[in-house]
Design goal:
Blueprint: E1 3-5, H1 7-13, H2 18-25, H3 29-36, H4 45-55, H5 59-62, E2 63-65, H6 68-71
Antiparallel strand pairs: 1-2
Length: 72
Protein backbone atom coordinates (compact mmCIF):
# COMPACT_ATOMS: atom_id res chain seq x y z
CA UNK A 1 0.00 0.00 0.00
CA UNK A 2 1.33 3.45 -0.84
CA UNK A 3 -0.29 5.21 2.11
CA UNK A 4 1.32 4.29 5.41
CA UNK A 5 -0.55 4.91 8.67
CA UNK A 6 1.83 5.93 11.45
CA UNK A 7 -0.81 6.00 14.16
CA UNK A 8 1.16 3.55 16.31
CA UNK A 9 4.20 5.83 16.14
CA UNK A 10 2.21 8.88 17.21
CA UNK A 11 0.54 6.89 20.02
CA UNK A 12 3.97 5.76 21.27
CA UNK A 13 5.31 9.33 21.16
CA UNK A 14 2.32 10.51 23.21
CA UNK A 15 2.45 7.39 25.43
CA UNK A 16 -1.22 6.75 24.73
CA UNK A 17 -2.88 3.36 24.62
CA UNK A 18 -5.37 2.24 22.00
CA UNK A 19 -8.09 2.17 24.67
CA UNK A 20 -7.35 5.74 25.78
CA UNK A 21 -7.24 7.04 22.21
CA UNK A 22 -10.46 5.21 21.40
CA UNK A 23 -12.26 6.89 24.30
CA UNK A 24 -10.92 10.36 23.49
CA UNK A 25 -11.62 10.16 19.75
CA UNK A 26 -14.93 8.36 20.03
CA UNK A 27 -14.07 5.46 17.73
CA UNK A 28 -14.57 1.81 18.54
CA UNK A 29 -11.50 -0.20 19.42
CA UNK A 30 -11.99 -2.40 16.38
CA UNK A 31 -12.20 0.52 13.95
CA UNK A 32 -9.19 2.21 15.53
CA UNK A 33 -7.26 -1.07 15.38
CA UNK A 34 -8.07 -1.45 11.68
CA UNK A 35 -6.78 2.07 11.09
CA UNK A 36 -3.68 1.51 13.22
CA UNK A 37 -2.69 -1.68 11.42
CA UNK A 38 -3.06 -0.09 8.00
CA UNK A 39 -5.98 -2.29 6.98
CA UNK A 40 -8.38 0.64 6.54
CA UNK A 41 -9.25 1.60 2.97
CA UNK A 42 -10.40 5.14 3.83
CA UNK A 43 -10.51 7.67 6.63
CA UNK A 44 -12.99 10.48 7.19
CA UNK A 45 -11.64 13.99 7.55
CA UNK A 46 -13.61 14.25 10.80
CA UNK A 47 -11.79 11.19 12.16
CA UNK A 48 -8.42 12.52 11.03
CA UNK A 49 -9.23 15.87 12.62
CA UNK A 50 -10.16 14.21 15.93
CA UNK A 51 -6.97 12.12 15.90
CA UNK A 52 -4.85 15.20 15.21
CA UNK A 53 -6.58 17.13 17.97
CA UNK A 54 -6.13 14.39 20.58
CA UNK A 55 -2.56 13.51 19.52
CA UNK A 56 -1.63 17.19 19.03
CA UNK A 57 -0.16 16.56 15.59
CA UNK A 58 -0.63 17.25 11.89
CA UNK A 59 -2.27 14.87 9.37
CA UNK A 60 1.16 14.28 7.82
CA UNK A 61 2.36 12.90 11.15
CA UNK A 62 -0.26 10.15 10.90
CA UNK A 63 -0.38 9.49 7.14
CA UNK A 64 2.65 9.03 4.92
CA UNK A 65 2.88 8.41 1.17
CA UNK A 66 5.54 6.02 -0.09
CA UNK A 67 6.07 5.73 -3.81
CA UNK A 68 6.44 1.99 -4.31
CA UNK A 69 7.42 2.50 -7.96
CA UNK A 70 10.67 4.23 -6.91
CA UNK A 71 11.55 1.53 -4.37
CA UNK A 72 11.67 -1.30 -6.92
Amino acid sequence: MSIIVNLDVMMAKRKMSLNELSEKVGLTLSNLSILKTGKAKAIRFSTLEALCEVLNCQPGDILEFKNEMNEK
